[in-house]
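User: I'm writing a tutorial on reading structure tokens. Could you give me a worked example: one chain, its sequence, then its tokens, then a sentence or two explaining what the tokens reveal?
Assistant: Sure. Here is the example chain.
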Amino acid sequence: MKNWAFKKFDGRVPRGDTKIGINKSGLIRLSSGFCDLTGITKYKYCVLYYDSTHNAIALKFTNTREDGVSAVTPDLKAATLSAKSFFHANKLDLAVISGRYDPQKANILSIGEVFIIELSTNGAIT
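And here are its predicted structure tokens:
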């Protein structure tokens, strides 16, 4: 007799992309694929950095609470960061930059390991 290995369908379709989204209300959405690949949900906080020269945001995940951190709020399979004050402080127009971005992992000497998203002034990559 065969040893069947059936898995029950729970009604959710897993998303395989690894994008980081910015919505018009100032939330940064970490896709389920990104969270699965990086293990980000094990962190409590995220420190956000902005490079105005390259119009890019760096996200550094940490379990240490410090000034300016955003809480990582996990949900079923993904997570969000509330960053409205970050966007406001850096004069970033959410109507222009909202959308989904492909992150790049980098190690910045003065910061450490981060995920960088380069913001588009023509609207984000979908």
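What the tokens reveal: The chain has a mean pLDDT of 89. Residues 20-118 form one domain.
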